[in-house]
Design goal:
This protein has ten helices and no strands. The protein is globular, with a radius of gyration of 22 Å. With 257 residues, it is an all-alpha fold.
């Protein structure tokens, strides 16, 4: 049992190492040019060479992503509660939210530049907008899972709508909220990088755009790897909070046992 648990913990590392080894082997065997697909070893060398620049721009991207994500969590949770608790709010706002979410977020960046100029603000707002919708939907869905029979029983016992919402609805929605956070944090990185490639002079998106303009493809891939690492770390933090806050909602998930 201990060996199986150790293997489960090692699986992400083994798969990641295997993918990098396969990537390296394909580049060596095919002889593909580095400006098309650089080898992982070359990407690593470039990361070490440009470490100060990568660190500076990655911290900027982490800041804008985190700020937009926090705004998305607060705004999305509050609006999700309002939508899930009221049929009037649901019927009035949900179609509008679906329509707004259908707009490509990259199309919003030029508008944000006109309003706020080039810099940090468009990246934060883009991260907020792109991470906002999943949180709203999941929180509203969590509130909607309260059985009508349970509501009727609670009302017959004298519980008010507010008490049903706070004591039953919100705890029921917590697993949905934390599940959406793991999705939203990765989307927030997408939003930040998109905005940085269009309307910023800092961040990983700006670094990748500058590197691609000079055909420094290994640096572009180094930026991609850094974004992937930050996304995995933030996802792990969200998953840790999910386990701590909603561990009671987890069940066995191995279908082969």
């Amino acid at each position: 049992m201990t060996g199986e648990r150790a293997l489960l913990k090692a699986m992400p590392w083994l798969v990641t190492i295997g993918l990098f080894v396969l990537w390296e082997a394909v580049c060596i065997v095919t002889g593909i040019e580095p400006f098309i697909l650089p080898r992982p070893t070359l990407v690593f060398e470039t990361s070490v060479q440009f470490a100060p620049q990568i660190l500076h721009h990655s911290l900027q991207t982490l800041y804008t992503t985190t700020a937009g994500f926090v705004l998305g969590v607060v705004g999305g949770a509050l609006l999700g509660i309002a939508i899930g608790a009221s049929k009037f709010v649901y019927n009035g706002l949900y179609p509008v939210l679906v329509g707004f979410n259908s707009i490509p977020k990259v199309a919003l960046v030029p508008v944000l530049v006109i309003w706020f100029g080039i810099g940090t603000v468009p990246a934060i707002i883009t991260a907020f907008v792109i991470s906002f919708f999943p949180i709203v939907v999941n929180v509203a869905t969590g509130l909607a899972t309260i059985e009508p029979e349970l509501r009727d029983v609670l009302r017959s016992l004298g519980a008010s709508k507010l008490e049903i919402l706070t004591k039953i609805g919100l705890p029921r929605a917590m697993p949905y909220l934390f599940a959406s956070l793991k999705i939203a944090i990765t989307l927030a990185f997408v939003g930040s990088v998109i905005a940085e490639t269009v309307a910023s002079n800092e961040g990983i998106g700006y670094l990748m755009l500058s590197a691609s303009s000079s055909y420094n493809v290994p640096l572009v891939f180094a930026g991609l790897v850094v974004v992937a690492i930050m996304g995995v770390l933030m996802y792990a933090v969200a998953a840790l909070f999910e386990r701590r806050m909603t561990g009671w909602a987890f069940r066995g998930s191995d279908l082969m046992t």
